[in-house]
Amino acid sequence: MRVALSIAGSDPTGGAGLQADLQTFAACGVHGAGVVTALTVQDTVKVKRVLPVFPNVVREQLQTLAGDLTPHALKLGMLATDDVARAVDHGLDAFARTGPLPPLVLDPVLAASDGTPLLERRALPILCTLIGRAQLVTPNLAEAKTLCERDVSSRAGVEAAARSLVEQLGAGAALVKGGHAADAPDDCLALREGEGVIVRWLAGERIPAGPVHGTGCALAAAAAAHLALGADVAESVERARRFVAEGLRRAFAAGEGARLLGRA
User: Fold this and answer.
1) The domain containing residue 113 runs over which residues?
2) Which positions ≥6 away from 158 have C-beta within 8 Å?
3) pLDDT given for residue 182 in this prediction
4) Which residue, 79, 94, 142, 203, has most beta carbons within 10 Å?
5) What is the average per-residue pLDDT within 122-150?
6) Is 224 within 8 Å of 34 (Cβ atoms)?
7) How far apart are CA 120 and CA 117, in angstroms?
8) Distance separating alpha carbons of residues 62 and 137, to the nearest angstrom
9) CA nearest 212: which of 252, 256, 264?
10) What is the pLDDT of residues 62-100, one digit of tens each?
11) Is the separation of the CB atoms in 75 and 224 below 8 Å?
12) What CA–CA distance (Å, rounded) separates 225 from 26?
């Protein structure tokens, strides 16, 4: 059994965060392990409170786990504060003591769908350091705009941001998600290839599911699961996109707010 580790915040609805990552790992056929970075008080309508885990406890979770279990891929989500982000950066070293760091997929969670901040602004520098350790980073348009300080209202701008995440910030690959675009929800994938970077546009489909919670978490977790199973980045991205599309087709209402992804 292959193992994927999620390092993320807790979402009590189960629609996003650590809980959704573990569901996604199971659906993709890998065992899911989890390290909690923050607790949230939220429902399907709104995030009401964020309580970061003590940074030393986050680091201790990672170091203790690394002494016993070797994940085949890592997925990094909500970090909440710069201190937690720094603890994660240090804690990841425990998984690289006997070899290279397992493939890392980083979902740069900056804010909830309702606009609630989920990462302190002062944590952006350490987040960028973590991006440099990632095999794949998966920002939405707003996150790419913030991280790269670029206008992403055009396809040329999106391509430039995707390239910047690889060339300037050091990610192995970047998938800038177009689900929030006003027109076609196409994704832009930038891949490091030799000394250069190639960019591919991946056609998206606008699935009429209404507001759905946790799509970004699921995509990154599914990509991590397929990396753990031995697929390369491009194939992992394609499989993850298909997983999310099917989840959107199966989306269901569990509360009064956004719908949740369905899983087969």
Assistant:
1) 3-260
2) 141, 144, 152, 176, 178, 188
3) 65
4) 79
5) 97
6) no
7) 7
8) 21
9) 252
10) 999 999 999 999 999 999 999 999 999 999 999 998 789
11) yes
12) 9
* Residue 117 contacts residue 76 (beta carbons within 8 Å): no
- The counts of H helices and E strands in the chain are 8, 11
- 159 and 187 in contact (C-beta within 8 Å)? no
Spatial contact of 71 and 102, defined as CB atoms under 8 Å apart: yes
> Using CA atoms, how far apart are residues 135 and 260, in angstroms rounded to an integer?
28
Of 154-158, 192-196, 215-219, the one with minimum mean pLDDT is 192-196
Beta strands in the chain (DSSP E): 3-10, 31-42, 47-52, 73-76, 104-106, 136-137, 173-176, 187-193, 196-202, 212-213, 259-260
Cβ atoms of 260 and 106 within 8 Å: the answer is: no
Whether 257 and 214 have beta carbons less than 8 Å apart is answered as: no
The number of folded domains in the chain is 1
CA 222, CA 114: separation in Å to the nearest integer? 24
Give 52's pLDDT tier (boundaries 50, 70, 90): very high
The residues facing 191 across adjacent strands are: 173, 198
Q: What is the CATH number of the domain that holds 179?
A: 3.40.1190.20
Helix (H) or strand (E) holding 219: helix 215-228
From residue 28, alpha-carbon distances to 83, 101, 134, 138 in Å are 32, 22, 21, 18
The alpha carbon dihedral of 218, 184, 131, 232 has a sign of positive
Measured CA to CA, the distance from residue 238 to residue 133 in angstroms comes to 22
Tokens standing for residue 245: 């599309």
pLDDT score of 21 more than 80? yes
